[in-house]
User: Fold Cytochrome P450 from Karstenula rhodostoma CBS 690.94.
Amino acid sequence: MPVTEKPHVPRITSSARLFTSAVSASEYSLFVMPADSLSIIIVAFLATVVTYYSFKRTMGNGAKYPPAASHWFPLLSHTRTFALGDITLASTFLKQCRENIPVRFHGIGFDFILVSGTNLIRKALTTDSHLDWNHTSAQMFGRLFNAPKRICDATAADDSGVGVKPYPGSYVHPGQRLIRNQVLFFNDAFSKKSMDELAPRFLHNLKQRHTDFDIGETWTNLPDLYIFLRKFIFRCGIVSFYGQNMLDLNPDVEKEFTEYDGNIPFLATGLPRFMNPRAFESRARCLAAVKRWRQEAIRQSEGQQEEDTEWDPAWGLGTIKRRNKLFDATEGLFDEDATAATDLATMWAFTSNVIPATFWLLFEILRDEDLYKRAKDALNTTRNADGSFDTTKIINNPLLQSAYSEVLRLHTASMMTRTVKKTHELDSWTLKRDQTVVLSSHIEHHNVYWNTMDASGRDHPAEAFWAERFLTPEGDFSLDGKQGKYMPYGMGEHMCPGRHFAKYEMLLTFVVLVDRFEIELSSPQGWRPDNDLSRYGFGALHPKQKVEARIRMRP
Ligand code: HEM
Assistant:
């Protein structure tokens, strides 16, 4: 089929150019200042004075409370920044953060300490910490997935930790150790035995999926590469986790879920329903879909002999069925609404980040002809004698691993939010009880640390994509020395348990796509869509502008 539509050439706005072309604090500050230059100078001067004295006060008297980030509005403080969100928030964070000095942001409805810098991050997230994760988790479980209040309360109150033995002094009912139950579930889901079932199943579904599209050996125009990818991957993930029933019972689940996922940033605010009823309706439709699936799985299992297998046609992955025992052990805490919230949360976890991240992997490789060729050569070294791919070799290929890591460095903005359990010192800084603490991968991933020069003397600044960034001079993949600097999956006790599967999902999808299809970007040479920072804090960022491409089946 000939390419019929004129290629879409997105306009890069000046604000976007500011963001993507440089990460220096001074340039970011230009973006958030008023236009008039005299007022810029006055306001900047006042802000500097206020910040200096606030800093001096906190440092000078021996008390070491984190200084407040500067702002223009005495009463509202940083409220405007947070109300605007998006690029304003991202740029303000980058401008105001200080390496290894916590900084306080506050305004209407929020008050938190932003912690940045390798030393503080490591101490905050990896030491047996005084920072609590449960409160944020409980709140998000309620807001994003509509978990019943009693489940959120039980999550927030679970002070037993994730270990086999509950923390001393914790009296949580053994079956209601909800945080540990989640760890048990994901350990089981991504155990070797389970992955040996899941990874080949996912690969098989990807290979099947490529025939579902009306794409032949002549070029077909793709008006939006991201949407194509979303359609491609979503079903494969769903069927690999929940089995075919989920799709058969809910033919519109992909559409519903896409709408719901688009509303996640709104739902996370906790704002009332009347402000965006569609967000709540799409969530309700997704919850109804997972309930339908669960009712059918229960119906199909009735009267059947209990068998512990890694795959069950009614339940999908064995671990999903085994999780029912954890629900049962809560002794009535988990009813139909609670299990639906958990099923929806699981579905969201294995799709919402991986799909945009895979888009960026494909896009960044396709936009560089030389890299594309080297990636294809690398893939050919992972083939078995019969032409099929060896998935272990793919996952361990140095160039592909490095490109994958660089995608997560440049295109994620994950936020780790914690609550201080008891007043303590983080280095020399006092963190008060109940204070909220926030860490952002976006900040750490744009640190000047990442400005690198390669052996040929070419600069690779932090804001540029460089596929080889994670390769040693010997050509091996390495994350050595990057703990606390590179954290797309967070760090410490609550580090993402799905990270290994996410890597599989991303790399296997890339492999199947470039093996089965020829794909060419229609966008101008060197152009890249902006990261959509309206999802700042939720992990992988979506592309802000559409990317047109053309595609055809390989002969
Ligand atoms: C590119 C893909 C992904 C990214 C960037 C990502 C990012 C993250 C980050 C930053 C955290 C830590 C949050 C914190 O410490 O507060 C996290 C936690 C989590 N992730 Fe992921 N994730 C990805 C894929 C996945 C997948 C595929 C799954 C499951 C199938 C998953 C399940 C989870 C769960 C359950 C947690 C909470 C861990 C806990 O409770 O301790 N994620 N993820």
Summary: Residues 135-189+202-541 form a domain with the Cytochrome p450 fold (CATH 1.10.630.10).
